[in-house]
Design goal:
The chain is an alpha/beta fold. The chain has 2 domains: 55 residues; 300 residues, Glycoside hydrolase/deacetylase (TIM Barrel, Alpha-Beta Barrel), CATH 3.20.20. The chain is built from 16 helices and 8 strands. The strands form 2 sheets. Strands 1, 2, 3, 6, 7 and 8 form a 6-stranded parallel β-sheet that branches. Strand 1, helix 10 and strand 2 form a beta-alpha-beta unit. The relative contact order is 0.15. The protein binds zinc ion.
Length: 378
């Protein structure tokens, strides 16, 4: 009796063991593809978000910026159209003209092995000619793109204000486009902790974001405009639609913060190729309304590649900043670009350790503009 029971027990134990092995085996077999699927779904979701962003108007800045400069790289004559001679006197200010002239396309491209990066860096080398830069070289696209020496020569030849800019080298203006976002608060906290003032080129958002507009102003940063909707089709459809976008945003910001913004950044930059009218038409509107626009000559690349690490973002920026005299740095305040937030402390530390002065855009800031022109009434 006892023996039978033992044998029976042993048999049952074995059966239980087999059951367990089969069960665990099944679990492993079943869970592996499930985990893999979840992981892949996550990745697909991320990529879709990225794709939506890139395809949407909201994220087109960098792409159009790049594509327009890819085209410029291949066609130096295009500069003839874009860089018209400038005697810009917006607001009657006597700002030093921004000369990032030594930072030519060719130079920038030379120093970079990877073509994609080269495009980014080269783009940042678009020369900005501010006030007083009635340079014949400007209208000659070939000389600009092909030979940086021409630009240097012209600089020596004629621009008095260039000397001032040289003395004040090492100014860096951090700018954040497309916000406010869920990360604006974090960006503001980091800036506050470091006692650094920056510039935010914001778009129109609902009341959930009004506190960020207010914080930007209250904490001493510059609140700049970046159009109300950031939708290229709408924004650049006509002079009327452009004016409506600016007015709507300007009055929203004034209502919320009590401050009327007179600083603007073109979605896609002033050198964008999505505008349906010549950009000069819109610049004329800005001039008439005492609104200064600023492009950039240094960028992190955060909007084109969300997988860049914070270190890479800082390296991209510093590479440009070290080549420039003054730098306006393009970054993005977007909910899918958290690396920008993560990179900010490192960027500030690096800039400070290398002796740069970090400033918000104000009337003393250099007019760094990809396309610079006088109003049409000229
Ligand atoms: Zn933008």
């Amino acid at each position: 009796m006892e023996k039978i029971t033992r044998a029976e027990l042993a048999r049952r134990k074995r059966i239980n063991l087999y059951k367990k092995i089969i069960l665990y085996g099944f679990c492993v077999l079943a869970i592996t593809p499930i985990i893999t699927s979840i992981f892949l779904l996550y990745k697909i979701n991320k990529m879709e978000e990225r794709l939506d962003y890139v395809l949407s108007e909201d994220g087109g800045d960098y792409l159009t910026y790049r594509s327009s400069h890819d085209a410029l790289l291949g066609n130096p004559n295009a500069y003839g159209k874009l860089l018209s001679p400038s005697t810009r006197t917006v607001l009657g200010n006597t700002q030093p003209s921004t000369n990032v002239a030594e930072n030519t396309l060719e130079d920038a491209a030379k120093g970079t092995a990877n073509t994609e990066e080269a495009t980014e860096v080269a783009g940042s080398g678009i020369t900005a000619f501010g006030e007083g830069a009635g340079l014949p070289e400007n209208t000659d696209g070939n000389s600009l793109a092909e030979d940086g020496a021409d630009v240097d020569a012209s600089e020596e030849a004629g621009i008095e204000t260039a000397g001032k800019a040289k003395k004040n080298a090492k100014r860096v203006y951090l700018t954040f486009d497309d916000g406010p976002s869920i990360y604006t608060g974090q960006i503001l906290d980091i800036l506050k902790a470091n006692d650094v003032k920056a510039t935010f080129f914001v778009i129109g958002k609902d009341e959930n974001y009004y506190d960020y507009y207010r914080r930007i102003v209250d904490e001493g940063h510059t609140l700049g405009m970046h159009s109300y909707t950031h939708q290229y089709q709408k924004l650049y459809a006509s002079e009327e639609s452009f004016a409506a976008e600016i007015e709507e945003l300007q009055s929203l910001l004034a209502d919320v913060t009590g401050v009327e913004s007179h600083v603007f950044r073109f979605p896609g930059g002033s050198s964008n190729d999505v505008s349906q009218l010549p950009i000069e038409n819109y610049i004329a509107y800005l001039n008439e309304h005492n609104i200064n626009y600023y492009d950039w000559n240094a960028l992190s690349g955060d909007a084109v590649n969300a997988s860049l690490s914070p270190e890479q973002l800082v390296n991209n920026i510093m590479k440009d900043v070290r080549e420039n005299k003054d730098s306006i740095v393009l970054m993005h305040d977007l909910q899918n670009v958290h690396a920008t937030v993560e990179s900010l402390q490192m960027l500030i530390d690096t800039l400070k350790s290398e002796g740069y002065e970090i400033l918000p855009i104000d009337e003393n800031a250099p007019l760094i503009q990809h396309v610079s022109c006088n109003s049409v009434e000229e």
